[in-house]
Amino acid sequence: MRHRSASSLGLALVVSSSTPLILLNEQLVVKAASGSFCRSFSVDCNSVVGRELFELGEGEWDIPQLRSLLTATAAGNAAIDAYEMDLKRAGSPTRHLVIHAHVLDHEEDEAPRLAVAVTDVTEALQARRAHDALVQEKQVLLQELNHRVANSLQIIASVLMQRVRIAQSEETRTHLREAHHRVMSVATLQRQLASSATGDVALRPYFADLCASIGASMIPDPELLCLSVEADDSVTTADRSVSMGLIVTELVINSLKHAYPAEAKGRIKIGFHSNGDAWTLTVADDGVGIDGGHESGKSGLGTGIVNALAAQLGATVEVTNAEPGCLVSIVHRETAAATVP
Predict the structure, then answer these.
(1) CA geometry: angle at 298 spanning 297 and 302, to 5°?
(2) How do residues 221-244 score in pLDDT, each as one tens digit?
(3) pLDDT score recorded for residue 61
(4) What is the rounded distance in angstroms from the CA atom of residue 296 to the CA atom of residue 21?
(5) Domain range for residue 178?
(6) What is its EC number (predicted)?
(7) pTM
């Protein structure tokens, strides 16, 4: 009596299930099917019981691999977890299904029953494919945009250098050279970000590449002046890396312009270190220092740019007379609602 009650309960659970579910015996004959299964796959609930699963519909369930898996599962030799298959029926769109099948617990003298759950993931799969296609399209467009931006920056840089050569005033030439250096630094930042495969940017190689670009365009004799980077393994988001890169560019240009008299030797060090949510970006030179005419901390375009970018990052600017030289620190302190660099 207990066996019949347990069997009846299993049948009742399958029939009343709101998900597509069927109950098979060890010969893979349908013993019960939920109304959801019948509706989802256009099967007559009144005639489904007593038929093999593979006879249902127009034979679309008769798939050799599915038959093998269900046979092995019914024999207790396997279990089906998330088996994916395409259900093809004449005159209907192909449906992508995920199958789960397990033998229900039963007494030794009781015939085994196989519960098979069927999930139609066609719409989800189509949505995923559409999303992937959209992402691919956006990547192509972004690559094209990066290419055009790079070309435009190179054109602007070339025009600025042409203006430098024909300018009559030394002051005008100086301003044009500064503009050229800024454009080239932005071009370097753009190139580095365009080559980044992810949204995160490793800061040590990022600053190293940036300094190499600045040095190549602004340091005529690397034996006299050089740039170096001392940074930990911190990474940051692309938008933050742009602000940091522009800060480094402005501070390095400022040191190269004002910290070293003609033929003076020196080294400009770029540093970055983080501790939790706090971080410090530094640019230090060993030049004349603030008392000797260094422009850091004084009003000007470069200083205004650095202060504005630091404010965007939620950081403060600290200028110190390093004796010798000048140290500029961009400091982001840890806060309760912390922002990761």
Answers:
(1) 85
(2) 888 999 999 999 999 988 888 899
(3) 92
(4) 74
(5) 122-197
(6) 2.7.13.3
(7) 0.57
